[in-house]
TrEMBL record:
Keywords: Aminoacyl-tRNA synthetase, ATP-binding, Cytoplasm, Ligase, Nucleotide-binding, Protein biosynthesis
Chief location of this protein within or outside the cell: cytoplasm
Organism: Serratia aquatilis
Highest rank taxon of the organism: Bacteria
Subcellular localization, as worded in the UniProt entry: Cytoplasm
Stored InterPro entries: aa-tRNA-synth_II (IPR006195), aa-tRNA-synth_II/BPL/LPL (IPR045864), Anticodon-bd (IPR004154), Anticodon-bd_dom_sf (IPR036621), His-tRNA-ligase (IPR015807), HisRS-like_core (IPR041715), HisRS/HisZ (IPR004516), HisRS_anticodon (IPR033656)
Entry keyword Manganese: no
Pfam families linked: HGTP_anticodon, tRNA-synt_His
Domain Aminoacyl-transfer RNA synthetases class-II family profile residues, every copy: 1-326
Family named by the database record: Belongs to the class-II aminoacyl-tRNA synthetase family.
Catalysis: reaction(s): tRNA(His) + L-histidine + ATP = L-histidyl-tRNA(His) + AMP + diphosphate + H(+)
EC class (word): ligase
GO molecular function terms attached to this record: histidine-tRNA ligase activity
Protein name per UniProt: Histidine--tRNA ligase
Amino acid sequence: MAKNIQAIRGMNDYLPEETALWQRIEGTLKQVLGGYGYSEIRLPIVEQTPLFKRAIGEVTDVVEKEMYTFEDRNGESLTLRPEGTAGCVRAGIEHGLLYNQEQRLWYIGPMFRYERPQKGRYRQFHQLGAEVFGLQGPDIDAELILLSARWWKALGIAEHVNLELNSIGSLEARAQYRDALVAFLEQHQDKLDEDCKRRMYSNPLRVLDSKNAQVQTLLNDAPRLSEYLDEGSKEHFAGLCELLQQAGIPYTVNERLVRGLDYYNRTVFEWVTTSLGAQGTVCAGGRYDGLVEQLGGRATPAVGFAMGMERLVLLVQAVNPDFKAPATIDVYVISSGVGTQSAAMLLAEHVRNAAPQIKLMTNYGGGNFKKQITRADKWGARIALILGENEVAAQQVVVKDLRSGEQETLAQSEVAARLALMLG
Ligand code: ATP
Ligand code: MG
């Protein structure tokens, strides 16, 4: 017998039990986004490889070793998107959405990175991202943070995420700091691990967020990014902190918070949790005023974030198990006897016409009443509609409350209104 073909490592199937929770979480997230006037943008999953190289930067983990790149049949190099910002900016430029305009956008969908799969880290994962173009003040940075804070409240996880904040300054300020940091690291090469040595020249700021304790101790004596910040960035950061204080959003300034992607400037932030083990960053973002121009558009200020949906779902499951998917159905329609099966199907259609909000499933494949009631329970139904030959003949139906066990017989014409009332 042929060997079964399995899914690709790190790329998951999401089964009905999980998708129901995902849908509820996504619904909550989208409702909040709507409440701030953000609009959805849908983008291709594949882009030309140079887009990511230019946007993310050649010397980042993502471009160096995580991209799924392949040749199209005509020899063009394409890449499965590892993140959403590059494509969003590409589309914004291509469709003239950015120049002299304000845009508040969001997207959701799969991203692809060749990483070592583990809890909270996959090769196909999902991000919900938000990107705002055309606004340069700290007020919009604050709005993105307020919006996400509202998500945590709505999902019941606010006590389990902390906001970390930093400013990485202008490109110029960062270049100066980079030189000072490299000079320092060169003097202490003996205390650096291989990863840090490699990053020291390619992407030295990433040394700051090394997980190595010895490196972190060494960094206590290193030059500090905050001492190199330009005036504009300092003011911007102070403005953001002030707004967050006014809005009552607690935060920690983490001077070693940098982003793995090259295009950020000024504000960077992360929402982190200690409830998920090593993969603790749920949502990460910041300002990227240089990217639109770098990709060929006119200079446009921009700020955004991306949230890892798998990590968010894991966190909700871990700390707020009461946030559950609703039952698949409200009502299960049961029938037994000659001519009752078609009557059950038609009654269910009648109820769906009259009360479209009610979720009904009709029993197919027969079975005695007891067996059908068991199926009703399995699907989480609160109510069973029961049709036997007598009910069909009298155009009636038995309405059974599966929790209390109470039941009553009603005319079929009254049942939709009765169900709507019971399910309130
Ligand atoms: P990390 O340091 O965890 O690798 P990153 O800096 O590569 O994160 P970003 O590129 O900022 O991550 O992506 C934003 C968010 O997307 C992350 O904070 C995380 O929640 C999620 N994310 C990133 N990579 C993965 C992955 N491989 N699997 C699941 N979620 C991911
Ligand atoms: Mg990563």
